[in-house]
Design goal:
Elements (H helix, E strand, L loop, with lengths): L1 E7 L1 E3 L5 E9 L5 E8 L6 E6 L6 E3 L7 E6 L4 E6 L8 E9 L15 E2 L3 E5 L2
Parallel strand pairs: 2-11
Antiparallel strand pairs: 1-3, 3-8, 4-5, 4-9, 5-6, 7-8, 9-10, 9-11
């Protein structure tokens, strides 16, 4: 079992920045690829960013490339989502997720690959 506890989120003006954190407990952290997803009102959950267990590889949705950065601190068992130049379309509930990865350089983009999920954090971008 892996438990994920998120922190961060809130209300920010367009063009602003916000950081989300997700701390894991349970099994060996580096055995898991980590991802961030979001779900806007009336829409399906979508992939935002992912990072491999060894931190070498990352992947981003086209809509957030060059604005969001995923970070991972393995000794602290924590993954971060640094969000810059936020726009109203980024408004959503954001979820972190952990997916077991036999190869430490694996990054998953499908939510079906993730077994464990954080509780979610609301991000609202509005003036």
């Amino acid at each position: 079992q892996v438990q994920l506890v998120q922190s961060g989120g809130g209300l920010v003006q367009p063009g602003g920045s916000l950081t989300l954190s997700c701390r894991a407990s349970g099994r060996t952290f580096t055995d898991y690829a980590m991802g961030w997803f979001r779900q806007a009102p009336g829409k399906e959950r979508e992939f935002v960013a992912g990072v491999s267990g060894n931190t070498d590889n990352t992947n981003y949705a086209d809509s957030v490339k060059a604005r969001f950065t995923v970070g991972r601190d393995n000794p602290q068992r924590t993954v971060y989502l640094y969000m810059n130049n936020l726009i109203p379309e980024d408004t959503a509930i954001y979820f972190c997720a952990a997916g077991q990865a036999p190869l430490t350089f694996t990054v998953y983009t499908s939510e079906r690959s993730y077994q464990y999920w954080g509780q979610g954090a609301q991000v609202t971008v509005s003036s």
